[in-house]
Design a protein that fits this description.
There is one protein chain. The chain is α+β, with helices and mostly antiparallel strands and 176 residues long. 43% of the residues lie in helices and 27% in strands. It contains four helices and seven strands.
């Protein structure tokens, strides 16, 4: 049997935990267009008032402000394309981080040797969550707020604990 056939014959490991973490954006695309329409109307009206009063260059700066606000939102939406993917199986904990520019970084850990390090603040909650394995730390869930990060940490910790316990098998008992 060839190596590829041996791998194909083995059943796939069950996924104990899988999460896709993305940056939060509070303004939808429709909201963005509505906000830009309001900004454009206000900028145009303000610019016209100053233009009619004889201060034409001030009207130009009203338009420039609207253009800069539009550009800032576009940059913000572009950075929202970044994400983190965390997957736990009984034998592997895999983290994949993709930047907004498309740069992919991947890490693989043995869940038996991995623990979670939490940095908490009594007022703000869970500030930072790190995977620690053999003296190395990797921050995960950086896009999340403190409450979401706490929920993420609980689910990830449970999955790592389940992976550390190993596979459980039920034993068939004969009828008594």
């Amino acid at each position: 049997m060839s190596e590829s056939n041996a791998q194909a014959a083995l059943p796939a490991e069950p996924t104990l935990f899988s999460a896709l973490v993305t940056p939060h954006r509070s303004l939808s695309r429709v909201g963005f267009f509505m906000l830009m329409a309001v900004i454009a109307v206000v900028s145009f009206a303000g610019g016209m008032v100053f233009y009619l009063a004889g201060a034409g260059p001030v009207g130009f700066f009203f338009g420039l402000d609207a253009l800069l606000i539009y550009w800032a939102f576009r940059v913000n939406y572009r950075t929202a394309e970044a994400y983190e993917q965390v997957t736990v199986t009984p034998s592997e904990l895999r983290v994949k981080k993709v930047s907004h520019k498309g740069k992919v970084s991947e890490w693989s850990f043995n869940p038996v040797w991995t623990s979670l390090d939490r940095e908490t603040h009594e007022e703000y909650g869970l500030l930072r969550l790190c995977l620690v394995s053999r003296g190395k730390k990797l921050t995960v869930g950086g896009f999340l707020g403190p409450d979401e990060r706490e929920s993420f940490a609980k689910a990830l910790s449970a999955a790592i604990g389940e992976a550390k316990r190993g596979p459980t098998r039920s034993v068939a008992r004969p009828n008594e």
